[in-house]
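Our collaborator T.R. sent over the components below with a one-line note: 'Predict the complex.' Nothing else. No constraints on interfaces, no templates requested, no preferences about which chain binds where. So this is a plain run: every listed entity goes in together, and whatever single assembly comes back becomes the starting point for the next discussion.
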Amino acid sequence: MGPNASGAGTDCGKYEAGSTSTIRCRLPMSSLHQRAKDLFLEALARPAEDRATFVADSCGEDVALRHEVESLLSFHAEDSGKTEPEPGDPPFAPGEVIAGRYRMIARIGRGGMGDVWRADDLVLKTSVALKLIASSSPSARARILNEVRLARQITHAAVCRVFDVGEAAGIVFYTMELIRGEDLAALVRRIGRLPSEKVADIALQLCGGLSAAHAQGVLHRDLKPANVLIDDRGLVRITDFGIAIPRTDAEQHLHTGTPRYMAPEQRVKGAALSERTDVYALGVLLYELLVGRFPERTADGTPPPKPSTLVPNVNPRLERAIMQALSLDPQQRPASAMDMAALLPGGDTGTGTGRGTSAAGLYRRRVPWWLAGAALAAVVVILAVASSFLLRSGARALTGQDVIVVADFANSTGEPVFDGALKVALAVALEQSPFLKVFPDERARDTLLLMRRSPDERITPALAREIARREQSKAFLTGSIASLGSTYVLTLEALNAETGDVMAREQTEAAGKEQVLTALGQATSSLRQKLGESLASIKEFDAPLPRATTPSLEALHAYALALSDGREVPRLEAVPHLERAIELDPTFAMAHAQLSSVYANTGQSALAPRYSRTAFQLRDRVSQRERFYISWRYYRDAAQNWEEALELARAWTVAYPREAFAFNSLGAAFLRFGQFEQSVTAFKEAIRLDPKFSPAYSNLAAALMAIDKYADARSALREAEAHELDFIGARRLSYLLAFLEVDTATMERDFDASIGVRETNAAFGWQAHTSAFAGRIKAAHEQFRRGVQMSLQGNFLEVAAQLTMEDAETHAIIGECREAKAEVPAGLDMSRDNSTLERASRIFALCGTGGEVAALTGELAKRFPDATFTTQLSLPVTAAALALHRSDARRAIELLEPVRKYDHAPSAEFWPSYLRGQAYLQVKDGRAAMAEFQRIVDHRGEVPASMLYPLAQLGVARASALAGETETARAAYERFLMAWDGADANLEPLTEARLEYSRLQ
Amino acid sequence: MPDHHPTPEELFPTIYGELRRLAAGYLQRERRNHTLQPTALVHEAWLRLQNQRSVEWQGRTHCLAIGAQAMRRLLVDHGRHQKREKRGGGAAPLSLDTLFDAAKTGGVPVEDLLTLEEALSRLEEIDARAAQVVILRFFAGMSSPEVSAHLGVSLRTVEGDWTHARAWLRRELAGTAE
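Returned assembly:
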């Protein structure tokens, strides 16, 4: 073929690309390109040694063409050696189908033996985890086959199911259950350690799994945190029976296993291994979960330190079980996983020995009953998964995701044999449909719990309908069987869950008992078709109902309205809906808790405790997930016990490691304690888990601001804005950040945007603080007054009280005690919440009015005995302020010493450091005073507009003058005088500072 | 809505949005490495959409093709927002093979993806179909038979395009390193 004979470019017209790109046939560029391409491909079809001649001949005089072809060939040649996969690199690409069955989706992990991929099983239409075995030597291959053979024998909810083994491109692989979660090693790395109860729970699950394996004669031999996965419901699965061997072969074992977790006998070649070997590894694993590190032994073999000597709140039974499992002598350990389980908290039956210690029994007792059901109904579950996959691939693909709830069969035959069997048979028959998914029975039982009914209750048609409505299922199905002489009549009805209308009906007869199942299958088939058509005509429901425990569907609807737009944190507008929900069901715990949340978040903290207390009292009647939330609200809003709140949040993140709300709560608790770095990590995790969970962004911004990362804080706020988070907390942060960045335009914008919004009269307070910061006390006073006035008009008494007290405190700080004391009673009339009382007592202490202080602190101690920051921060600070006023600096220092751990807590508002600094000045200890004031100067982001900040500059000046550091003192005086350049005339600190500064000259 | 195939106009913004969200998540998590797995991303975006709404299984290649286009757009947009450091004197020449291999096995540095994208857009100018083949194979992770079916051209044509385009791109990328 000659160089010009190829019909260059004629393809262009015929070829149509997708509508997203256009084809251009531009000459001569593409013409040269096309000709070169054709020649290049033709050349490649020839033996390598002939190519040069071929190209030279074909191109003739066309030098450009020849260069182009030669250059392409050279770049082709370059890769020929390289395209071979490098050893160790998985030769598969995402999207590739291997072994004709698995489509590789993405690599999800790297194991010691090889990579783990997420893949779609095109035959079973489900997602699986696919593990590639890096080395496929004959021995490895044999080992894998053995592994799979063994693992397949074990069916237990706590053991990762293995499905299939195969080979592709010379690489052996096997598939297993895809678990969305992480391994325990990662969890411990992330969280540090787990609370005692959670470890006990995991321990029982693992004992169940191991015991199931041991019952099959299989030892795991490499049990370690990295081999245990935990999913988002807190359920664990043991994976990697990679080196598990049948127990009969145990004597010939080789050194395999991970040394740190290996029992002593495992390190000795030829020693007998037993169930106790796995029990030892289990002990190490549990120790590590509980303590956060590996049990260290000294060389002489003394046992590792008891967990309770290393961490608080260790359950003694758990500790005993773990320590016993860690015995070096196998005979000293629990004899089996079951024996180990019996030693654990919650592991005994209380009815004597030997009973109830079967794996299944144990499992059922410990984990939520609905999960235990999952293990028993494994076949049904797999069918369900398969069919949900089929939904997307099915030939008819009507509406894709239709789930139907199936009621229990009405059996009037008097023959109990039909009771459970027909429902299962019906579910299986229905699952064969490409467009239907049966709502899993165990989830229906779960929903029953939320409806505060017994999970064992018969699912009558009425219950099935309510379950369907709650779970956004369009339809529900009822079935009945009756006998007519020797024949049986089967009736199936599909009904619209919203309207209750019959959508499809099928009746059939069976000549005898043996024919019943066949008849049911036929009836189901025709029902399925009718149903598919009817389902297609139902419109989707508007909004899903949230999952919460209440027997009243109406109450649940009202609750859903409160959480509209998918908000997890309801706003003020939600109050009527929540009140309605409570009216409909006074025992609706979550509605109480959410109402508490609204009040706590809108400056009405005095209203919140009532609701969170009620919710807390009802907590035993709700699901575990709700219980965490309710307890959180209680500790936070009612008890204000932040130590408990922190512990709870920790446990919450462990139990629900995929719940953004839990991490947000953990971050909030850290934030309260001034542990900003930890809170940043927690908030980031919350955002990672749910980028739409908006409160986490502004919380993150607050934490970042506190550690002076202003730019990062600003970008977190921008993200909050991008998520349409426009609530007052974010505005306030934005305002303060702008204040730190001296960005008056943004400050104005934030202020303007906040005024007039109902719950936001506090914005006048922000403004007032910035005025006071600059020593403009009169202006601040005016701004505080306006805020108070507007809050009173809006009936936000607590906000009004807060602004009043802050105004009074500003006066007290600069020694205007007459003005300060005059305002306090008015503030207390508005609200006696603890924050108001705390500030009032501090004002009286600063002004030396001892009697008033005693009355107020007495009230606080009595009414808020558990409130962490009231008892441990506010009360000592007030006492110290009073001592200082009485010139008893030693006493003040003493009182403030235990408060040090809360120095950075935002609610400390710099007071402990400031008062300590003043006290050291009084006792003429310049160095110590400097350190205290400097702490404030160095952490301005914690309370950006605090008036104590400029005054701390003055403190530094005085302290350094006292310490004889005149230059430092001069600079600090100048900074203070500059900050108060526009201050009101005749302010006491200012007059004094000027005088001291002039003496310094 | 039986048998409704969403049009590319309907799907593109959805897939693009999903990809952007996913990619942002990855980039945020991997701030230090700043790498992306383009193929895995496209697949993941598609899977998510499939779970969220009833994007049909039959439309798989169809959706993935749109996903691949969306991925390119994402790269272009990302490049526009970032001040790009040109691969300067010290940088090793960017090898297409390394890039393709990396895309299979793990993350590809975003910089390199941007460079590839630029080269691809030049190829698109002169040989749109070949560019399409590369995009479908690389970003959508399709096999040659799938590409052939999707574009409605013969398998031989697809393989010719693929072989040639790789040589062509390899040369382009070698050029950028200078």
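Summary for T.R.: The mean pLDDT of chain A is 79.
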